[in-house]
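Field log, afternoon session.

UNIT: design team B
ACTIVITY: writing a sequence onto a fixed backbone
BACKBONE:
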């Protein structure tokens, strides 16, 4: 079971209120959604999106007690605006994004996200999509591979890793996560391999982001989320790495400068030491919030509870 992070802080920052209407753009296994519905009470409504059908099946069961007050759809959150129109839903009181891969994915070797288990080079979040990590690894030119690994993995050995992949695949295509890990290991000088965690971590992150177009989707969705909110409605985002956190921070600033509302978190909120001890995955979580203003860009009624 995926363990949701910073649950109390999320409910607080979203300002969940009885009877409110919420969208959980990454409903996953429904942990945050259940906490939101607990607080929103009988009149509350929630739409949960996730592009992963298996996660949604778990959420469906967990959120069953709320009946038709909870709707779930297998969709990428970049379609948020269209989905709201289709559902005739809005304006919203809050939108939540809890980014990243659920631990269930990471632990499932058949999904190909893990550099620690052998599996196919897949990494698709949405298995209806056709492009996989194997297509990128075996199909992209060396320059494009190096660019992706450097940009999305912030990997200093990107150029060498790209070259090693290209050399290896000239002998035979890379099929599994183990093949890719071997190519990465060959590329990184031995002294560097001994520090900074698993040598394949950053390259795997980069490919996952590229396969799923994660950063583009996030930018689009943040704007759509703000557009969907009523004055006083809030958009909250938990991110797990600096690339995403930077996008969230910048997008919220751009919206604030455009007079669309107020950034609620000058600095991101982080989990307390107890949560980090109990759930090490929460260690890198960063939570940011934005409150949509009225048309003049002023914070809406009931705001003022700024955090950080
Ligand atoms: C960290 S988990 C969410 C866990 C959830 N908050 C809970 O309490 O169980 C992130 C989820 O977001 C989904 N996801 C990531 N990017 C997405 C996107 N662009 N569109 C839809 N779902 C996405 C993943 O499939 C995954 O289930």
């Amino acid at each position: 079971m995926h363990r949701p992070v910073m649950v109390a802080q999320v409910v607080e920052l979203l300002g969940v209120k009885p009877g409110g209407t919420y969208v959980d753009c990454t409903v996953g296994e429904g942990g945050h959604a259940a906490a939101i519905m607990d607080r929103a009470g009988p009149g509350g409504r929630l739409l949960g999106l996730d592009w992963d059908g298996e996660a949604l099946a778990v959420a469906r069961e967990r959120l069953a007690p709320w009946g038709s007050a909870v709707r779930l759809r297998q969709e990428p959150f970049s379609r948020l605006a269209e989905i709201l129109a289709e559902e005739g839903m809005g304006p919203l009181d809050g939108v939540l994004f809890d980014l990243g891969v659920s631990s269930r994915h990471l632990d499932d070797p058949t999904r190909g996200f893990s550099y620690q288990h052998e599996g196919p080079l897949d990494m698709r979040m949405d298995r209806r999509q056709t492009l996989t990590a194997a297509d990128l690894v075996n199909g992209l030119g060396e320059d494009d591979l190096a660019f992706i690994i450097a940009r999305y993995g912030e990997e200093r050995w990107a150029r060498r890793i790209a070259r090693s992949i290209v050399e290896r695949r000239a002998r035979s295509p890379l099929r599994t996560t183990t093949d890719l890990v071997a190519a990465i290991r060959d590329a990184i000088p031995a002294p560097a391999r001994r520090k900074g965690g698993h040598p394949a971590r950053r390259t795997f992150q980069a490919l996952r982001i590229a396969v799923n177009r994660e950063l583009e989707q996030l930018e689009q969705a943040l704007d759509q989320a703000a557009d969907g909110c009523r004055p006083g409605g809030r958009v909250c985002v938990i991110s797990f790495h600096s690339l995403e956190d930077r996008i969230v921070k910048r997008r919220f600033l751009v919206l604030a400068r455009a007079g669309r509302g107020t950034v609620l978190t000058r600095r991101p909120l982080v989990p307390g030491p107890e949560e980090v001890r109990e759930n090490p995955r929460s260690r890198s979580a960063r939570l940011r919030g934005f409150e949509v203003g009225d048309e003049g860009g002023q914070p809406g009624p009931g705001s003022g509870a700024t955090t950080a």
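LOG NOTE: The first helix runs from residue 7 to 14.
NEXT ACTIVITY: expression trials, pending approval
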